[in-house]
Amino acid sequence: MKGWFGTFLLALLLVDGLAQTMDTVFLAGQAPIVGELRRIRYGTLHFKGENLGNLEIDLTHVQTIRAYGYGYRIQTAQRQFVVGVFIPHGEPGKVTVYDGFENRDFEVRNLNEVQLIHQRFFRRMEGRAGAGYSFSRSSEIGRWNGDFVLEYDTERLDVDLRGSVILTQEEGRLSRERESLQLLGNYYLNPTWYGFGLVNYQRNLQLGISRRLQQGLGMGVHLIQHKRGITRLRTGAVINQEFNLEGTRNNSLYEWPIMLDVTLFKLKKPKIRFNTTQTLFVGLTQSGRYRNDGDTRLSWTVVNNLDIGLNFYNNYDNQPPVEMGENFDYGMVISIGYTF
């Protein structure tokens, strides 16, 4: 993006600001809503309405959009990647995007990902946090589970920090049964390809892992960008440091990862979203070793910002770090989550 793009947007705001200082969403059969367009994702437009608070609007109800802000990062179902501002289109169901060079017309329903480019650091962050608890009276065992996601976006970079934990409560003691913390960054090279880097921490007592530290780099591709779903594939190389429950440390374990990420969403009520991330690790240092890490989530949006989720995790290791240890672990947890 040219250096003068930001200057252009500022000038555009100053010239047009007297006529319209707030973003506007034009809806079918309703009065326009003014406020701030924050994001479009999974078929839902996130909008902070003036005197209305945070709104979630189904894209199928949107006729067109007017929004400047400091610009938006836009990805479409046709694998187009644009940074620009929204100008109302005369034809219902369409919107014009000005990218600093030309006007480009798009179908509103094909706007897969739209992210407002904020100037301030903390306003670029969004997230979700969830928690759940289950208890069996017969065994007097309780299980706490929690998970969170923090997302940070810029013009071509997005960074996700996500984690989860399962704690087992038995006879008044808490045991850290399973933990995961991952920092993943994607840098978009074009509408299809992107580079990624990751740092990962894991703990899984069922597989005999006290902790695993993992770092990796690679390339990713958008296999499918559709108005009802997104599929991504990543591959590269990772290096692990493993500590098993017996205190043994294994350094420099190289692996070849193949990561598949699938997200599907339903726009009409009830709003349902399905996501699964499955990763196959092929051992390079340890010949013949294969591992699988997977997380699957099915969520139902009850009201704005509040959802109920069903999480399923699966882990497999044909050469677990502890002799005679388990090589397969799976589980399911229910949680209530809040998006912010």
Q: Could you characterize what this model shows?
A:
This protein has 340 residues and is mainly beta. The protein folds into two domains: 5-117, no CATH class; 124-339, Beta Barrel (Outer membrane phospholipase (ompla), Chain C), CATH 2.40.230. The protein contains one helix and 21 strands. The chain has a twelve-stranded antiparallel barrel with strand order 10-11-12-13-14-15-16-17-18-19-20-21. The longest helix has 12 residues, at 5-16. The chain starts with a helix and ends with a strand. The model is unreliable at 1-20 (pLDDT under 50).
Short overview:
The chain is mainly beta and 340 residues long. It contains one helix and 21 strands.
SSE order: HEEEEEEEEEEEEEEEEEEEEE
Distance between the termini: 30 Å
Q: What is the C-level CATH assignment of the largest domain?
A: Mainly Beta
Q: Give Rg in angstroms.
A: 23 Å
Strand content: over 45%
Q: What is the spatial order of strands in the main beta sheet?
A: 10-11-12-13-14-15-16-17-18-19-20-21
Quaternary structure type:
single chain
Q: What summary fits the major beta sheet? A: 12 strands, antiparallel, barrel
What fraction, in percent, of the residue positions are helical? under 10%
CATH topology grouping of the largest domain:
Outer membrane phospholipase (ompla), Chain C
- Total tally of structural domains: 2
Number of strands: 21
Q: Segments where pLDDT lies below 50 for 5+ residues?
A: 1-20
Shape: globular
CATH superfamily of the largest domain: Nucleoside-specific channel-forming protein, Tsx-like
Number of helices: 1
